[in-house]
Every structure is written in C-alpha cells, then in structure tokens.
Amino acid sequence: MKSKIAALRIAAVVAGVLAGANAAAESDIDLRGGFGYDSNAYELSDVLGEQSGFFAEAEATVNAEGTADGGWHKQADLGLSGRLHESSLRDADRARIFVRARGDSAEKYGEHGWDWALRYAMRDQTYVSRLTGLVATDSVGNEIGDRYDSGRADLLLQWRFPGRKFGRFSVEATAADRNYLDDYQEFGLERLDYYEYGVGPGFELDSRDGNLRIKLQYEKRIYDDRRVSDAAGIPVAGTDLEYENYGVEARYRHRLTRQSALELTGGYDLREDNGVGYADRTQWNVGLEWTLRFKDDGRLVMESEYSSRVFDQQVVGDPTINDEAPEKKGFDVQVRYERPFPFVDIRGFSLVVEAELQSYDNSDDERYTYDRLVGFVGVRQEF
C-alpha cells in the first residue's frame, strides 16, 4: 500500500513540476485569509451542548499553466490551507495540503477529447467524538485523536466523444489510494487503508442560455485489512471488507441575465457491502444556487442544499471511529460575497464575506442532530 502511495505521490510531484516549468510565464498566486466565528465547531447535538469560538483561517494556492506540444493545455497546482481556533477549541484545528497536475486536449466540439488529472492530498485534524465532545478514545480509554489523519492519491481520466446537436457523451475512469498515517493497531483497531476504482458515462448538453450535465458512476472500494461486520456490527474474522457504490449526479445551469445565473443540482448514491448489509447506506441531495455579478466586479452567491444519508441497518455505537460518516438529514445554506476592497486601489485585492447555516435536525438518531452557524470576514489577493 505505502509503496503504491509513494509512487503516485512522486508521480504527482514530478508531473506538477514538469507541467509548471514550461508554463512559468503564466503562473498565478491566490492568497486568502481572515477571521471567523463558529457556533458549533465539533457538530455536537443539543444534549451535549455546542462549543463555540473564533478562528483564523488562511489559504494559499499556486497555479501554473501553459500549452504543450500538440496543443494540449496543461496545468499544475499546489495549495495549502489551515484553520486555527482560540485556545478552548484547539482540537478543532485543521490543515490540508495538495499537489496536482492535469491536462486536457483543448479539442474542438466535433472532435474526440481527453482530460487527465493526478493529485496527492494530505489532511490533519483531531478526531473529536460526536458522542462526548472530547478527543476520541478506544473502548479502554486510549486517545486516538489522529485516527483521521491521512494521505490520498487519486487519478482521473476522461474520454469525450465528438459533440453533436443533441449533446456530447463521455466516459470517465477514476482510481484512488488512501493511507491513514496512524492505524492504532496496537490498540486493536482495524486498519482503514483502502484503494478504490470507478467508471461511468457522462452526458453534456449546451444551449443558448443553459448547460445540462448528467453522470452515472460505479465505484468499488477494497480495504487492505478490515473485516466485514455481521448484523450486530461485530467484525467477522477471516473476511475482507469491500464496498460497491452506484450513483448518479445531475446539474443544470441557466443564465437568467448577463449578470445572473441559476443552478440546480441533484444526486443519488447507494452503497452496498460484501457481507450481510450492515454498512449498506443510501444518500441523496438536491440543491439550488443563485449567482449575481456586479458592475464593480463583485459577486454574490447564495446556495441551499437538502441532503439525506441513512443506513439500512441502524448503526450501533460511534461509527466515526472508523471514519464512517453517521446518519445525517437536513439543510445547508451558504452565502458568499466578494468585491474589490473599498477605498483601496490594489489590483486583485478583494473583500470576502461568507456565512453558512447548517441545520441537520431531521435525523432519526438524535445523537447526530445539530445546528451550526459559521461566519467569516477576510481578504483575498490574486497575483
């Protein structure tokens, strides 16, 4: 596993360096930072009580792009981000870094086309139990706060068929390999490392004022050393856990005016395990997004989504100990506003204001119901 991770990581770095080297004249730097407030940093239910506080957030991305032999468009990205909370919420701190190389054939609409992307990303965050509000422990009290820290390498390949009046079809293949940095096997916990692959067709239709995209997806995940659970959630010795996912996504974007657009989204995903179905899961979502652009280069985005994630068999205990998302039903509403910073004449310097309301109160399992409000004010500088 680790050798495969290392190989993909090195390939991503090398590909990014090579892609960026010839495109250095067309490089961009995007910096973003500011301060915010989180009313429920650990997503705790009302029974435990919310833990709120202020945070500082920073993000930096370096992008380089250019044209390769044969007219191919190539691009390389390197980014990192982090959020630091006040002292009472230190366990909510998080960080992420990624490197990515990608390219596309820049073909005409009536020609075959190809996309590829290779990425490696790492995340660092402390695992806080949703059942206690404290750093998570195993059954005998050993802390396992680094349970979620991981690195992930993924590859995407897409083949687009020549477009016609009725639209354009494509086929997409994906592969990924995730390695958890601390497996806690000395405490008897299961390893969570896995690899997965997927394939699916896609369809896109452009009109004068709209764009429709539909994608079907089949995905299979194979764990390196994790057991299948029986109907009571107990691991079965001598088994190897696998998941199969069947999904569909749809997205329609309609231009209302020259300055505004409306986007509708929806998705459905069914997961099945290779045992008695203890980990079987069904999730779906519908969303709406409205974008308005102003004459001063400002932009307002408002979006709302309802999502539902349920398990066919009720989960016992705390599923997040194995990096499994628990049952979740409710709304997520976001508002983002960005405009050139007032009274300051600096090219690419912007004011950023964001707000998000999460209300997941419809779940049958009250342990995972919560409300959360996050606000952020910051600046952005593009070079």
Account of the 3D structure:
The chain is mainly beta and 383 residues long. The protein has one helix and 16 strands. The protein has one helix spanning 2-21, and strands spanning 27-38, 53-67, 73-85, 94-104, 113-125, 150-160, 168-180, 194-206, 210-223, 242-255, 260-273, 281-293, 299-311, 328-340, 349-360, 370-382. The protein has a 16-stranded antiparallel β-barrel with strand order 1-2-3-4-5-6-7-8-9-10-11-12-13-14-15-16. Strand 14 and strand 15 (349-360) form a beta hairpin. Mean pLDDT is 89; it is low at 17-21.
What would you say about this model in short?
By secondary structure, this protein is mostly beta strands. It has one helix at residues 2-21; strands spanning 27-38, 53-67, 73-85, 94-104, 113-125, 150-160, 168-180, 194-206, 210-223, 242-255, 260-273, 281-293, 299-311, 328-340, 349-360, 370-382.
Strand content: over 45%
Helix content: under 10%
What is the overall number of helices?
1
In what order do the strands lie side by side in the largest sheet? Answer: 1-2-3-4-5-6-7-8-9-10-11-12-13-14-15-16
Question: How far apart lie the N and C ends?
Answer: 39 Å
Average the pLDDT over all residues and give the rounded result. 89
Indicate the low-confidence ranges by residue numbers. Answer: 17-21
- Biggest sheet layout: 16 strands, antiparallel, barrel
SSE ordering: HEEEEEEEEEEEEEEEE
